[in-house]
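To illustrate the input format used throughout this study, we show a single complete record. The first block contains the structure-token representation of the backbone; no residue identities are included at this stage. The design step must infer an amino acid for every position from geometry alone.
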């Protein structure tokens, strides 16, 4: 009899727990988020729309153009440009995950976004940002092999290794994002939640949750620190060895040529990781809301626009390909 009573009580507790979990899931499913964006500056809505639309247009043309140039020119079928094509793809994808919604919110009054749409934007944005982080580290290793072991470069950086490194970058980024998305979906959200930003950023969605955040904050900290430290370790080690090798070169011309092959990549790394440190590691200030938005704009829109420009303006092979492409079109037009 006692066993039956305990079993009955346990069964009731399980049913109550499941019922409460379903209520939480239903609340999260109907929860909406209001992306405030730049709504506190109504007089700037149109100018900002034109500015961001221009930046996004340049981003799309620049990154897709870079991928096309690399594909059509056999001279660019090398490991460095293979990685660059995937960097351009990542830039295009995470900018596209954010910018269209930002442009929409600048011209409409209703700035709400459903929970599923919020999570979806976060998933794609996070996936390609983490992918880019590791692609930059892979490209640093590629430059290390090219400068320090030029005779073995083609052998070491084989097509199989390049594909493996890129595949690992995408795969790990998806794993990280799935972990974060899983825990985000398990949190409780109620009604309308105001987000003082224009994108579905992790810290913003966590800040409006009614759940205990200790576990997810610890997981985020571990994953974030691992991604940042591991990629920076690869980058710093690679360039330290590159610098030592260059300093041992006898001719100034050889040094200058070696430095020139790394300048574009170092510029991109400095901008990308510098922005990450500014957004996530610099202490908050009184104007942190505005600074966060400006930093996010730079992070999600300006960097994807600058990357193809930096690589194309400082690269003779890319400029030569563009010149030949335009000359071919002009000749075809004359015919």
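Output of the design step:
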């Amino acid at each position: 009899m006692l066993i039956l009573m305990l079993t009955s009580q346990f069964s009731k507790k399980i049913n109550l727990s499941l019922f409460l979990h379903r209520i939480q899931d239903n609340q999260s499913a109907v929860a909406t988020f209001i992306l405030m964006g730049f709504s506190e500056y109504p007089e700037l809505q149109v100018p900002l729309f034109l500015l961001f639309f221009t930046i996004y247009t340049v981003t799309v043309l620049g990154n897709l153009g870079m991928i096309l140039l690399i594909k059509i020119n056999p001279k660019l079928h090398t490991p460095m440009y293979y990685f660059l094509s995937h960097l351009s793809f990542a830039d295009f994808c995470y900018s596209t995950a954010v910018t269209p919604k930002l442009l929409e919110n600048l011209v409409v009054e209703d700035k709400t976004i459903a929970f599923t749409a919020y999570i979806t934007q976060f998933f794609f944005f996070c996936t390609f940002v983490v992918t880019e982080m590791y692609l930059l580290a892979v490209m640093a290793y590629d430059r290390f092999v090219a400068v320090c072991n030029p005779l073995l470069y083609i052998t070491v950086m084989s097509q199989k290794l390049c594909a493996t490194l890129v595949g690992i970058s995408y795969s790990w980024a998806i794993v990280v994002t799935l972990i974060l998305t899983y825990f985000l979906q398990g949190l409780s959200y109620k009604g309308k939640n105001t987000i003082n930003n224009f994108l579905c950023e992790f810290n913003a969605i966590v800040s409006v949750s009614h759940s205990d955040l200790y576990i997810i904050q610890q997981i985020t900290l571990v994953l974030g620190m691992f991604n940042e430290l591991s990629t920076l370790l690869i980058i710093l080690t690679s360039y330290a060895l590159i610098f030592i090798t260059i300093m041992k070169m006898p001719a100034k011309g050889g040094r200058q040529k070696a430095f020139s092959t790394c300048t574009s990549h170092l510029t991109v790394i400095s901008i990308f990781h510098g922005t990450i440190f500014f957004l996530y590691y610099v202490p908050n200030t009184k104007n942190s809301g505005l600074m966060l938005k400006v930093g996010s704009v730079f992070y999600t829109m300006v960097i994807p626009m600058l990357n193809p420009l930096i690589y194309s303006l400082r690269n003779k092979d890319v400029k030569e390909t563009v010149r030949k492409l335009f000359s071919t079109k002009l000749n075809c037009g004359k015919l």
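Structural context for interpreting the output: Strands lie at 32-35, 112-114, 192-195. DSSP finds eleven helices and three strands in the chain.
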